[in-house]
């Protein structure tokens, strides 16, 4: 519960914001047509006038903070602005006006910021979505979109969200961790890195498996760096996150339906189309639905070295999840035929784990062995230190 002083400050901020909007309209100032310095000066002058006219006791520091926050309200994304500009913040989660959390170094923590009320959260959501041409209202109460900088935003509002509007933002970073960074941080050993490089260069079909926030995209991006330069690569993603420093790459991105419910382009359609583009390898950002059918068939018919990620806690779980996706998306075959398809298509599963400390690591690398008796026969090529694995397994056990 916010303190009375904090609530009074939020009420003041709301009054000042409305006053600034009126002043901008009266003077015909277009926020998008003025520099940030000019806007800051305009806000500073008018905030000072408002405070003086209403005889509001504010210290110089509080006045400066209020001015900065009002600039963010007028020209940016309000309370989200400092979080979006903070490089150490990876995820921003807004559960309500007073419940804002961030993920820093893999650990969730409460942020020292808040919104005024539900209407304030909703206003910021709509400001985020406005340039993207996306719709959010009672008839379409949830939206998933990508910001111009590549960050992924998901918003959901009542009546679906029972406790008020909610926002989840996965920030996009231009500074991806290098292989040496991952070795130095203990995410993998040098031997593990050498193994992964040899698997990529040996054109093995690789599936990166892990739970939410384990670094699947980071590892996929890393592996992709070692694809030979003479090969043609097609990437398919829901939200473009991969940054491949490669001379011959075609990047494809899915598209959601428009306001009328048409125009959607799925990952499955893009995988099918990519097969007509003469790729040497296909990199699918994440397996979620029917695209798994086409991806496995592509892996099995001349597109060796393809890669993707999947949500699963263990390598065995990843295979079970693939089976489920095949079944629910209409792949009509016997259990034996499904096992043979999966076993003959996938070569390697790279399993990732996140520890309670926030540390992410490659816990295991397993090779699929094509056994006539067991389609899912596996051989461990790498396994993290026993001490680390005991900790990882205890975490998984607690979650069961």
TrEMBL record:
Note the Pfam families from the entry.
T2SSE
Name a GO molecular-function annotation: ATP hydrolysis activity
Please give the InterPro entries that the UniProt record associates with this protein: AAA+_ATPase, P-loop_NTPase, T2SS/T4SS_dom, T4SS_GSP_E_ATPase
- SUPFAM superfamilies documented for this protein: P-loop containing nucleoside triphosphate hydrolases (SSF52540)
The residue range of the signal peptide is: none
Into which family does the record put it?
Belongs to the GSP E family.
Protein name listed in UniProt? CpaF family protein
Native source organism of the sequence: Marinobacter salinexigens
């Amino acid at each position: 519960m916010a303190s009375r002083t904090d609530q009074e400050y939020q009420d003041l901020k709301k009054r000042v914001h409305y006053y600034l909007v009126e002043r901008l309209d009266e003077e015909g100032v277009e926020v998008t047509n003025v520099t940030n310095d000019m806007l800051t000066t305009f806000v500073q002058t008018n905030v000072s006038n408002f405070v003086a006219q209403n005889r509001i006791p504010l210290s110089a520091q509080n006045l400066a903070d209020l001015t900065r926050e009002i600039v963010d309200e007028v020209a940016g994304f309000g309370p989200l602005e400092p979080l979006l500009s903070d490089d150490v913040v990876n995820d921003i989660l807004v559960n309500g006006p007073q419940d804002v959390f961030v993920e820093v170094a893999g650990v969730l923590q409460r942020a020292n910021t808040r919104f005024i009320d539900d209407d304030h959260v909703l206003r910021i959501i709509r400001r985020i979505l406005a340039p993207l041409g996306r719709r959010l209202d009672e008839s379409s109460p949830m939206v998933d979109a990508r910001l111009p900088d590549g960050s992924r935003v998901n918003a959901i509002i009542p009546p679906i969200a029972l406790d008020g509007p909610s926002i989840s933002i996965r920030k996009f970073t231009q500074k991806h961790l290098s292989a040496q960074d991952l070795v130095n941080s203990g995410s993998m050993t040098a031997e593990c890195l050498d193994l992964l490089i040899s698997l990529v260069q040996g054109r093995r079909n690789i599936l990166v498996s892990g739970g939410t926030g384990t670094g699947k995209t980071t590892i996929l991006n890393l592996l992709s760096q070692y694809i030979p330069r003479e090969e043609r690569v097609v990437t398919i993603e829901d939200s473009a996150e991969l940054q491949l420093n490669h001379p011959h790459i075609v990047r494809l991105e899915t598209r959601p339906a428009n306001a009328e419910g048409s125009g959607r382009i799925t990952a499955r359609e893009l995988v099918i189309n990519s097969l007509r583009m003469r790729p040497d390898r296909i990199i699918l950002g994440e397996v979620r639905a029917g695209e798994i059918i086409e991806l496995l068939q592509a892996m099995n018919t001349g597109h060796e070295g393809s890669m993707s990620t999947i949500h699963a806690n263990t390598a065995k779980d990843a295979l079970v999840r693939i089976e489920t996706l095949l079944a629910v998306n209409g792949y009509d075959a016997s259990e034996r035929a499904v096992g043979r398809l999966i076993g003959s298509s996938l070569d390697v599963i790279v399993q990732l784990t996140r520890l309670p400390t926030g540390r992410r690591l490659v816990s295991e690398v397993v090779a699929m062995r094509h056994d006539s008796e067991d389609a899912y026969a596996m051989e461990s090529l790498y396994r993290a230190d026993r001490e680390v694995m005991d900790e990882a397994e205890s975490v998984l056990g607690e979650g069961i």
